[in-house]
Amino acid sequence: RKQTYIVHTAKSQIPSSFTSHQEWYHTTLDSVLEAPVEQGVSRIIYTYSTVLHGFSARLTPAEAESLRGKHGVLAVLPEKVYHLHTTRTPEFLGLNDPNGLLPLSGNGGDVIIGVLDTGVWPESKSYNDDGFGPVPTSWKGECTTGKNFDASSCNRKLIGAQFFSAGYEAALGPIVEGKESRSPRDDDGHGTHTSTTAGGSVVNDASLFGYAFGNARGMAPRARIATYKVCWIGGCFSSDILRAMDKAIVDGVNVLSLSIGGGVSEYYRDSVAIGAFAATEHGVFVSCSAGNAGPASSSLSNVAPWIMTVGAGTIDRDFPAYAVLGNGKNFSGVSLYSGKNLPDTATIPLIYAANASNSTSGNLCFQGTLVPEKVAGKIVLCDRGVTARVQKGAVVKAAGGAGMILANLEANGEELVADAHLLPAVGVGQKNGDAVRDYVLSDPHPMATIVIAGTKVGIEPSPVVAAFSSRGPNSITPGILKPDLIAPGVNILAGWSGSVGPTGLASDDRRVDFNIISGTSMSCPHVSGLAALLKVAHPDWSPSAIKSALMTTAYSSYKDGNPLLDVATKRPSTPFDHGAGHVDPQKALDPGLIYDLTTEDYLGFLCGLGYYPDEIALVARRNFTCSGSKITASNLNYPSFVALFDTAIEGRRGRVSAGQAAQSQSIRLTRTVTNVGSAASSYKVTVSAPEPVKAVVEPDVLSFTAKGETKSYTVSLTSSSLPSGTSKFGYLEWSDGQHLVRSPIAFTWT
After folding, report:
1. pTM value?
2. Domains of the chain
């Protein structure tokens, strides 16, 4: 059975008998095919020249194995399927400051943000190009025509729109045009939402059914946007993703935003990591979503150190609603329902879905599980889980229900995500859900109603880490702390597709210009847009410098000094939850010091992991000699620290046992900082380490006489043993009285 494989080749090993790499690829592929192809037909799906050297093709396992032995072929890897990670935020992030990042960066200037997602709805007001100058001369991309999409769909704001479906169609067959557009057009909404979050133009009086009313704008409202449609109904296929990244780099994007993920794998097998490495090497900042698999530990995606991995937090806006019960008790929750309201008093019969179903899973309100005769005219209590929240409401409505109370179970705890339900509905946390369930099961005649309360701002505390936001530690490289930081990702208002309703359900015939949704898919483009602003303000900064500025200025405590909270536990969050903290763009504009990295450093890091030369070549696209270049993960010049005690050598291969736990172990971590602040400055260090760790920093003062000057320091950590699996946290700060350069430290005993 054929499947798609990504074939990596050594560019320099092309035989002299071929005049082009394409000719070499076709001839090599033809030599392993078990059956001839028709004349003029090629099994090659794409060729790649930037993110990797090689091609993708449909092969049988036997053909793939034969190809692995051919001259110049480095690897033949099976394709991977990735999936989507799915107004007020500029004010919440402080971007309204007249002396801050937004005005000082010209609102994004002519920087180009490339977004790999589900495409674009070009009619959205967020792509308005009024006041924009000519398209930057650096732009080499295009506006691809297709179904319901032509060159006129682009403008001076939306300067490029392309689609990549060959890999998807090779795997699943031709696109069904009645279900999705074989063009850059967004039939899903996700891509329009992410791209307008990153760089949407200012739109006055924006809202979703009156919720979150105000002026909507992206993080970099004057930035140019280029969209690359790689995600379809069946998923996002790595052959398409690689080709889109290949094209985006050549097109001239400055920032790449990918709100997609597909689990984790070694970097040389991870298509997004491979493409992101090439982008970084070309000076392109790459931001990716951390994933929505939280609060489970080690649930992160996109963990390569050259990627900015973004988790999600809340903002200070909410959409309150209440479940009012017949016993006089009210339970708070959230809702974006817009329509005819229920009575203010609890006069509607209430029933638990499990008691209105003939199915053992009736409590979850699956399609077809509710008995209409038991549900008609009543409010139904459904338990959250397995199927989409809005789908449960649609099931209740189809069965004749008057409303729905959606109760969280243990998996979601107290996390509340607002939805534009099709009927009066409120989502409540686990504690309130348990109380409602106790009432409906104990009262002989339970009654209720649902009260919708609109939009409320100034919610405290905020931000808090979203329960769905994926968590560390880093399962691929424990010595690199991930996520890097968190950004707004809960109940975010941004542009939407006109092809689909706000719930995304086929039964939802409502159409909106803006939608409110949640996920690390939403937090990622916030950081992408902020990186675009920094790129304009500091055009000489590398992608690693921009990442460092965003990380070392992030905050991990509220203004009152208390630590950020995790909504999943109601306890303080840790760097495994929030990374360096919540992004603070105003401070990132002037970080004082940065931790810079080159692609050569990253290759030395791969050497330190014990990667073989041919594996490194898959990432580097060239031969790289590790002799003298090995950098352990903990000593990569990263803006955060991980100290691994009582563990084996960090290499993935050839590990050496550390033996019995010593009474005292020592670790030395080295970093180099670059002065990007005032020419003459002196920074003093503060380090916080938990018991039983003793920390010493040498030197403890760094004095600079020029901008761009670098200084190195060493952190010596000594600790007695603790039980395996123990993790504790601390921090290291450099301050000159004006800047505070802060790095989290994770201490882990294994």
Report:
1. 0.92
2. 3-77 (3.30.70), 88-316+463-589 (3.40.50.200), 320-444 (3.50.30.30), 593-597+636-649+662-749 (2.60.40.2310)
